[in-house]
Amino acid sequence: MTTKDFLEICGFCISLLAMGWRIAGIKASVEQKIAKLEKDTYKDADNFKDSLEKQINLLDKRLDLLTQNSKSEADMFKYQLDGQGKRLGGEIDNLKKRVSGVIVFERLEQGILKMHDDLKKLSQ
Length: 124
Hints:
Blueprint: H1 3-123
């Protein structure tokens, strides 16, 4: 082996070492960029998750308010219907009493007319 061959081998090793060094630098740069992208992605995902949780909580509170309002409106409507039902029930009872009273008076009137006719027949 000559000095020239030795120098070529050393030059080749140095160029391999330089290429390895450069590849390691590129690899480190790529890994840093990937780590930064992952960090940003996780940060964005966490922010999105927090935003969704806030929106869900707001919607949940609004739903609770609407549910409470609808329950109170339903209770008021039920109370109004119950009151109207009681009034209608009372009015129906009054009508039944009046109808039964009218029927009684009609029967009395028929009885009086019959007695009047009987008295006329007797007086003739």
